[in-house]
Design a protein that fits this description.
The chain is of the alpha/beta class. About 40% of the residues lie in helices and about 20% in strands.
Length: about 250
């Protein structure tokens, strides 16, 4: 399967791509853009909650290889995103111990790709990301994931809070990885329907999200550096889940 992210440029071309059902990963818009086509596109962007970024014209020139971009370039995602409610329902029907992963504005595509790869290796049933503030699923993401992005369902939501409400209503407990807690990862029971929340590279899990989760947990840090790379921390949380579940299963 081809993994290169396709860039399309021009206001009308982007509008037609969206209306035809193409999955848009991100739209780059030139600051100060005006005109009827721009306002039409902007309306569609808001209706469909498409991730956008305001950038200088030089960025658009590079993305469009100096073609007439009209102030807008869009990336067509190489994957299709899943509906979260449907995925949760189908997962619960098939799996007594579902495992989901919520990424609260992970912005680096290499971290994102590495997390997807580990998620596939540890049996994660779905990855949930917000529409805005998250790294795109592009060619670099897929390369870093070693193709796992084609295997693990990925869902986009308007806000992580939306997913937390839906997970809680479905009986799935949530645990956030954060240094702002006294609870150790090794004191937590992962042998239950669970969703793990990982925060952004710079600020961690949003405080408003922390207030909504069932559990919080941290990793013991014995050196001088105060934090781990998010993809490494995520891998530890996921493999602690695997360890506990295998241990319980072997005793039954």
């Amino acid at each position: 399967m081809k993994t290169d992210t396709t860039n399309i440029f021009g206001l009308r071309a982007i509008i037609e791509a969206i209306e035809s059902g193409s999955t848009i990963s991100k739209i780059y818009l030139q600051k100060g853009l005006r005109g009827d086509l721009y306002f039409t596109l902007n309306k569609i962007i808001k209706e469909k909650n498409i991730t956008t970024s305001i950038v200088p014209v030089e960025k658009l020139d590079r993305l469009s290889k100096n073609n007439n971009h009209q102030g807008a370039v869009a990336q067509i995602s190489p994957i299709k995103f899943y509906d979260l409610e449907t995925l949760i329902e189908e997962t619960i029907q098939k799996n007594e111990l579902p495992l989901f992963l919520l990424l609260d504005q992970i912005s680096d595509v290499r971290n994102f790709g590495a997390i997807i790869r580990t998620a596939e290796c540890t049996g994660v049933n779905g990855i949930i990301i917000p529409n805005n503030g998250s790294a795109p699923v592009n060619a670099e993401t897929i390369k870093t994931s070693a193709g796992a992005a084609f295997k693990v369902p990925i869902c986009k939501v308007n806000h992580i809070k939306d997913a937390l409400f839906l997970l809680a209503a479905s009986g799935i407990k949530t645990v956030a990885a954060t240094e702002k807690t006294d609870n150790s990862i090794y004191d937590l029971d992962f042998n239950q329907p669970l969703a793990i929340v990982m925060g952004s590279e710079h600020r961690g899990v949003n405080p408003s999200v922390l207030k909504m989760v069932k559990y919080t947990a941290k990793l013991p840090l014995l050196g001088d550096i105060s934090s781990l790379n998010v993809s490494v921390a995520c891998g530890i949380f996921l493999y602690e889940t695997v360890r506990q579940r295998i241990s319980v299963s072997s005793k039954q």
